[in-house]
Amino acid sequence: MADATVLWEACATAIQSKVSDVIWQMTFSGAKPITADDLTLTVSVPNSLIRDRINDRYHDLVHKTVAEVSDDQLTLKIIVRQDEIDDPEDFVIPLTPSSTFDPTTQDPATNKKPKQPTATTTIQTPTDNGGPSFSGRLTFEDFVIGSSNRFAHAAAQAVAEKPGQSYNPLFIYAEAGLGKTHLLQAVGNYVLANYQAKKVHYVSSETFMNRFVEAIRNKKLSEFKDLHRRNDVLLVDDIQFMEGKEGLQEEFFHTFNSIQQDGGQIVLTSDRPPDDISTLEDRLRSRFKMGLVTHIQSPDVETRLAILRKKSEQGTSGVKIPDDVLFFIAENITENIREIEGALTRITAYCSLNQEICTSELAMTVLADLITSSAPLIITPDLILDRTSEIYGFSREDLVGASRRRPLVTARQVSMYVFRELTDLSYPAIGREFGDRDHTTVIHAVDKITKLMAERREIYDQVSALTSNIRSNN
Q1: 238 and 184 in one domain?
Q2: How confident is the model at residue 117 (pLDDT cuts 50, 70, 90)?
Q3: Tens digits of residue pLDDT in 8-27
Q4: How far apart are CA 157 and CA 107, in angstroms?
Q5: Which domain holds residue 348?
Q6: Whether 74 contacts 41, CB under 8 Å
Q7: Is 138 within a domain?
């Protein structure tokens, strides 16, 4: 199993998207991951009141979330932290639900004001069918600066240091995998770390639309407006998704105006500049251009090399990757940062499994399928699912279905990893290809396979075989 922190972060993201801010802060924000084994994820909470509240009122939510994230392999165990009470108790959430759950109901258990939210609890995360989760790992310190992104980085940092005063809005556009989401979330993390009183809201435009539709359906438009307009910093990812959606653009126009009029900061990302987003209303296009529009270009070889060095230094496998190997990757893998990192992961895993010293000759062999083809191959979801089905012997219906038999789960997770490595699809988009699964399930699968590739030869071989089969298109 992946470590407890990775598992609980995935669960927490899903839970936070389904409950109100008050419930999250008072009930779930104090939970901390402790351990995870093949059967149980153990989480600690500050006191028995919170433990009992989770069990009595939110049993269905937490149990379903843990089961989804772990592919039905884990149960959740809640313990009361020993450093906060004299007589700690533990409690295992039973498999039989004990109560019903209403995520929109405010918790009446206490009238105390919630504690000042931390960086992870202040941020509004997306709904199940929305965009990627807001990650505390994406900071300015982790962003590798080069000639292709230097101006965008400087602009984002200026906005973060003085939100609402520098460039408003800041519009960052780039192709997939070049770091625009990293900069967007780095702004949010910086503001939260340095302006604790400010409220930061991160949302993808797809999530914005899904929430908007649900608000209309459930007659909760006022709550929807409060959620998105009462913020000091609004971060919107993939704004091009609003293309052609008149009602959505109308709502966002008013959200945009409301935040700006109150002195708030808006940061937007897109895969193209405002003028290239067809069917975008002129009044929105003019507002997107009224601040600063900046472009992240494909990284040059020096930037790719710097990214590889940083990733190599952050690795935990203990494998030392020499400069000539890093340079080989940087010269030959040029599409985007995601492919560069995938190539490094594959080499590191191979060396770790075989206990071999990493050399440029070995790198040529391991990455042969990535660099031999000069003609671009169009890799579609259908192609990946078909190849996964052929190699593992499961039908496509099984792969995208609800069954959680262990061999099938492995095939599904490997396929999700390959989706992430070989396509530009976001986590939510990959989840939709697998029966509308939650994006946190995809994140967990990718993290798990990345870890297992360096530990288990059969997983490494399966990923390599599937990737090679897809790239060869045989």
Answers
A1: yes
A2: very low
A3: 888 898 898 888 765 777 67
A4: 38
A5: 301-371
A6: yes
A7: no
